[in-house]
Amino acid sequence: MRIELTVNERKVMLDVPPSETLLTSLRERLHLTGAKEACVEGECGACTVLLNGRPVDSCIYPTAASSETQITTVEGLRGTDGKLSPLQQAFVDHFAVQCGFCTPGLLMTLSALLANNPDPNRAEIQQAIVGNLCRCTGYVQVVEAVEAVVREAQR
Fold first, then answer.
1. What is the DSSP string of 28-42?
2. What domains are there in the chain, each with its CATH number?
3. DSSP label at 147?
């Protein structure tokens, strides 16, 4: 099956079998390895990417269903100048990155939250990341990083 999609603002054509997941296409065909393969059941959030601005678990999402969509991976969060996005920088500044395995999924989920709700409260941030499992941070630094981005945007 031949499909066209836009990944990180770049149009691509892919020939994929109907059963191939978006995660496989991103990692193996497009060499975008930021989304991680972990549970392969849509439970941990390590593979989260944005599909038309909405977070999806790419490990269970069929590439064929992505035809003519906009996909953003963690690689697409950087600015055109190569600098980290404010959220990525806040993760660094607030030590929200430990082993880093879950970080891309958290960044994508929280990017979608901030795009839809630029002023989330602590409970809304915590609710947004309910589907992203992290064993290292305890989520405290993650929430603090988002709160810092919100404060900075309000200045």
1. IIS----SPPS-SSS
2. 2-76 (3.10.20.30), 86-154 (1.10.150.120)
3. H
> Mind listing the pLDDT tens digit of every residue in the chain (155 residues)?
999 999 999 999 999 999 999 999 999 999 999 999 999 999 999 999 999 999 999 999 999 999 999 999 999 999 889 999 999 999 999 999 989 999 999 999 999 999 999 999 999 999 999 999 998 888 999 999 999 999 999 98
Q: How far apart are CA 15 and CA 77, in angstroms?
A: 26
Asked if 100 and 149 touch (Cβ cutoff 8 Å), the reply is no
* Interior/surface letters 84-121, b for 16+ CB within 10 angstroms, e for the rest: ebbbbebbeebebbeeebbbbbbbbbbbbbbeeeeebe
At 24, list the tokens. Answer: 């496989």
Amino acid 80 reads: T
